[in-house]
Amino acid sequence: MKIKIGKANDNDFVLKGPSVSRYHAILFRNPKGTLILEDLHSTNGTFVDGSQILRKPIRITDQIKLGDEKLDIRQVLRENNNYIEEFNALKQVYDDYIKEKVRIQSSNQFKTRLLQSLPFALPGVVGVLLSFAGKGNHSIFVISLIITILAPTIGIYLGAKQSAKTPGKLQAINNQFKIKYVCPKCGTFLGEIPWESLRNRKRCPVSSCKAIWAKD
Ligand SMILES: [Zn+2]
């Protein structure tokens, strides 16, 4: 949340008055959630309870003035249910999640198939070796027979084991996704809905929240 305040109409909160600069101040929360008011090198200064400030933690009950104009912080916050910046950061979260999910699934599919099919090639190799080693060698014949029978079994077993690894990995990235892909205001998980679709909704659908995600 970063609320730009000033006289110009493209501010998030417009405050008119001859002593207010076009882009006068900015209001935001630091990572701890404290409201910070910062003066943007305004001509007539920003004041908290009568003292000029450049950057100061404030409470909504503080008396704020931009130049000579009073600024009601409660009103600023109410009018600016503005979470556009935090919402934009969720695009990366969604894209990374999908990329990672596809990567895990396809790499696992590849490994599973490899493990299951390689052993079937083995008896062929053994057969070639056998013909070089000379027929009639009893022990080589027995070994090749054992490999012919065992290899596919082991292959199927390893393949099955490999494919069982996927749910665990997917579960892990799923859990992370559920923690990160949430409304920046109310923390509600947004589901596996593509970020672009959410942006088209423009606001959080939770009725007690209605945080603004994108400009109209
Ligand atoms: Zn919300």
- What does the radius of gyration come to? 32 Å
Helix content class: 40-55%
Sheet/helix structural class:
alpha+beta
Content of β-strand: 5-15%
Order of helices and strands: EEEEEEEEEHHHH
Low-confidence stretches: none
The main β sheet shows up as: 5 strands, mixed
* Number of alpha- plus pi-helical segments: 4
Bound molecules: zinc ion
**What is the distance, rounded to the nearest whole angstrom, between the alpha carbons of the first and last residues?**
17 Å
User: What is the mean predicted local confidence, pLDDT?
Assistant: 88
The global form is rod-shaped
The number of distinct β-strands equals 9
Spatial ordering of strands, largest sheet: 2-1-3-4-7
Summary keywords:
binds zinc ion, 216 residues, five-stranded mixed β-sheet, alpha+beta, 15% strand, rod-shaped, four-stranded antiparallel β-sheet
Describe the structure in your own words.
- There is one protein chain.
- The protein is α+β, with helices and mostly antiparallel strands and 216 residues long.
- The chain has 4 helices and 9 strands; from the N terminus they run E-E-E-E-E-E-E-E-E-H-H-H-H.
- The radius of gyration is 32 Å and the shape is rod-shaped.
- It starts with a strand and ends in a 15-residue tail after the last helix.
- The site of zinc ion has 8 residues, from loops.
